[in-house]
Fold:
Amino acid sequence: MTMTSSSSGTGSASSLEVFCRSVALVGVAELFDKTWFMGLLLALRYRASTVFAGSVLALLLHTVLAAALGYAFAKLLSPFWLNIIAAAFFGVFTLLYAKDCYMDDPQGDAVEEGRKEAEADVDLGDGSDSEASTNPKASLTEKDQPSELMVFSKSFMAVFIAEWGDRTQIAMIGQHASQPLIPVFLGSAVAFTLLSFSAVAAATLLAGQKISSRLIHGLSAVCFLVFALLAIRDALAHKDDQ
Structure:
């Protein structure tokens, strides 16, 4: 079996298609996810630009780690099996999101559920988390506000830890392993940057809004099913390479 690298670009999909697919994959997996709400909650409390910088850096580091692991896997397996494995992962995620959709309360609110999940993991450090999550202006005039470096560090660590072992991280490794490395990396990085921006921008826009969690999980299941089918298509394109 000939060892091939995911960066070789020999797949059936064009670089533009792989880039767009990566943007869509990361966007679907991350939007209204705990990591996304982590950035939103921090932006409610601290300067949005600092939170954005810390969040983006943390997620870009995850992208680098996923690229490195994906590249390593690409050295061990042929493109056919890499795409089969990626399709299997995407299929599992399809089932997980479908299960979430089925189990969701029909009246469930994705915004509120995501906010509560993130609040359980993030510590804003001043004992006023609950107030800050509902009132963006809470305590902004206090003299003991943390330094920008502290806010940056807190944003980086909170988002990095929240993303560790997340479905998106596993999906990115599979995508980096089975597709050309550079367009996948760029697509993932662009998606994370846009998601981080949307999180801090939505800090006030989503106040009082309600979005069906069943709808979010249902759409995610459909999207990952499409990703799985595309991976199977790419695997079949490499079948003769075995």
The first helix runs from residue 15 to 30. The CA atoms of residues 6 and 180 lie 5 Å apart. Residues 1-11, 126-141 have pLDDT under 50 and may be disordered.
